[in-house]
Amino acid sequence: MTADSAEAFALGQDEIAALRKQLRGPLLLPGEPAYDEARSVWNAMIDRRPTLVARCLDVGDVVTAVNFARDHNIPLSVKGGGHNIAGLAVGPGLLLDFSLMREVQLDPAARTARAAAGCLLSDVDQATQVYGLAAPLGFVSTTGIAGLTLGGGFGYLTRRAGWTCDNLLSLNVVTATGEIVVASAEENPDLFWGLRGGGGNFGVVTSFEYRLYPVGPEIYGGIRFWPAEDAPAVLDLYRTLVASAPPEQVCVAFLRFAPPAPWLPPEIHFKPVVGILICDTGPLADAAERAAPIKSFGAPLGDVLQPRTYLSQQSLLDATQPPGRRNYWKSEYLPRLEPALLERAIAHARRMVSPYSAIILFPIGGALNRLPEGHSAAGNRDAAFALIIACAWEDAAADADNISWVRSTWRDLRAFSTGGTYVNFLTAEEGEERIRAAYGPNYARLVEVKRRWDPENLFHTNKNIVPRPA
Ligand SMILES: Cc1cc2nc3c(=O)[nH]c(=O)nc-3n(C[C@H](O)[C@H](O)[C@H](O)COP(=O)(O)OP(=O)(O)OC[C@H]3O[C@@H](n4cnc5c(N)ncnc54)[C@H](O)[C@@H]3O)c2cc1C
Fold it and tell me: Which of 63, 76, 84, 159 is the pocket-test mutation for ligand 1 (most atoms within 8 Å of CB)?
């Protein structure tokens, strides 16, 4: 694929030179060192070549890039961690890349952190864990905080603290007119409401201020695998335990193939397994006692459930989610776990094509359910679990078979959905109908906020809220 040339956007060399001069950070063009690294995203199915990449160093660079895109009428895209499965970080035109802006400022006494928009989850976790604190972020530490937080966000602390975006205190934002504004409960509250779930539709966020929680540094966590034949009994145990689990205990269930992890015997690598991953941030003794029914169940193939640092828990899944594979997912929120759903999920797992496929159940019920639907744009306050049908593979020739498995499994299992879905898990082909499903009754208000803050739709490389009447 070739880059859209500067001529395609009627950009002269003198205008590019002037932009380069104005930016503190580097401006990258196709063929220049670091251009390919800057434009690449986690999902290898997405291969886009922007005309220009502005690697911003500070807020002034962000304003410069936004003004340049608007004034020259060229498409603008914004990249945080580049993990979005639909590849929304990169489009044609000008790419504003945050990868050089990764500072985390802490106020341990107030239990708050302000993180620059290029931070990955690991940046924030490492900084906050120095003080035994953590922001509610996601399960894979290489994910960007920006896309995750703006779309809602869930992870190991969600049952205690709600969506990631429920824990935002303020955001610093560059608007479509190039103004720098604060969005918080006190300042620009409509923008604050929309940014908490509505993605990058309303502005470019330069930093996020999070509320922090005491966590670890040592927690009880890890994972235990059993052979796939044990799935009915393991998932039945799982269903019973999660029904009464306190918010500190998060148990994630997997139907997948065994990863080639050093703690698993080589003969079971890539064999079908059922697994339960635990992260319990309660007192260690209580957490171990709560995990006992899982720890003592059946004959496992491998088990690394133990006291461990929160940082090691946060990166436990990283190796299973490398960048550069082809990926396709579908997801739904579930109000509860029905035995029939588990039976059908087990049947679909037997048909998995790629060894990197999985059906995953994340419990998220708790704090988020106690807030009203309209608290923030993220909504979905009736969700108790996120169901993810995930597939990764390496060879483009296998696209059709893998996508077909995901779609057919989803078509069957969506019968158990709340009707809502996670905007951050929507794939490239999922358009307005699925965006409306992701926002439910909050969609109409999102359109109003969009019309106020970005009526010309400058920020459209996202799951777009089109600024027309709802
Ligand atoms: C392996 C993996 C694990 C994941 N695990 C979780 C999980 O545990 N919990 C969870 O909630 N989600 C999870 N996700 C989904 C994740 O939340 C989304 O992929 C999210 O988009 C990632 O954020 P990012 O910054 O890396 O995204 P990017 O791909 O960089 O961007 C995504 C979108 O956000 C916009 N954006 C980025 N930065 C800004 C900014 N500064 N201002 C305005 N808009 C911006 C982009 O333009 C784009 O539209 C996971 C994804 C992957 C691939």
Answer: 84
What per-residue confidence (pLDDT) applies to 8? 75
Contact 210, 162 (CB under 8 A): no
Q: Which ligand 1 atom sits closest to the C-alpha of 151? A: 17
Measured in Å, residue 425 CA sits from the centre of ligand 1 at 9
Residue 379 and residue 246 share a domain: yes
> Ligand 1 centre from 26 Cα, in Å?
23
Give residue 319 CA to ligand 1 midpoint distance, Å.
18
Could you give the number of structural domains in the chain? 3
Question: In the structure, what pLDDT confidence band is assigned to residue 449 with cuts at 50, 70 and 90?
Answer: very high
State pLDDT tens for residues 250-274: 999 999 999 999 999 999 999 999 9
Q: What's the rounded mean pLDDT across residues 416-425? A: 97
Print the domain residue range for 416.
Answer: 218-425
Q: Establish if 203 belongs to a structural domain.
A: yes
Q: Answer yes or no: do 297 and 374 share one domain.
A: yes
Tokens coding 37: 């690294």
What CATH number corresponds to the domain at position 251? Answer: 3.40.462.20
Q: Which atom in ligand 1 lies closest to the alpha carbon of residue 152?
A: 11
Distance (Å, rounded) from C-alpha 399 to C-alpha 393? 8
The answer for residues whose C-beta is within 8 angstroms of residue 175's C-beta and 6 or more apart is 66, 181, 202, 203, 453, 454
- Final residue belonging to a domain, choices 97, 121, 143: 97
Residues 204 and 223 in one domain: no
Q: Whose CA is nearest to atom 45 of ligand 1?
A: 200
CA of 149 to the centre of ligand 1 (A): 8
Distance 147 CA to ligand 1 centre (A): 3
Ligand 1 centroid to 141 CA: how many Å?
Answer: 12
pLDDT band (50, 70, 90) for residue 470: low
In a domain, 300, yes or no: yes
Sign of CA dihedral 447, 450, 451, 452: positive
236 with 163, same domain: the answer is no
**φ, ψ at 134 (rounded to 5°):** -155, 150
- What's this model's pTM, rounded to 2 decimal places? 0.97
173 CB burial (10 A radius; 0-12, 13-18, 19+): buried
Q: Is the pLDDT of residue 1 over 60?
A: no
Question: Best substitution site from 42, 94, 98, 148 to test ligand 1's pocket, by max atoms within 8 Å of Cβ?
Answer: 148
Answer with the one of 53, 70, 97 that is the final residue of a domain: 97
For 90-145, the pLDDT digits (tens) are 999 999 999 999 999 999 999 999 999 999 999 999 999 999 999 999 999 999 99
Residues 126 and 74 in one domain: no
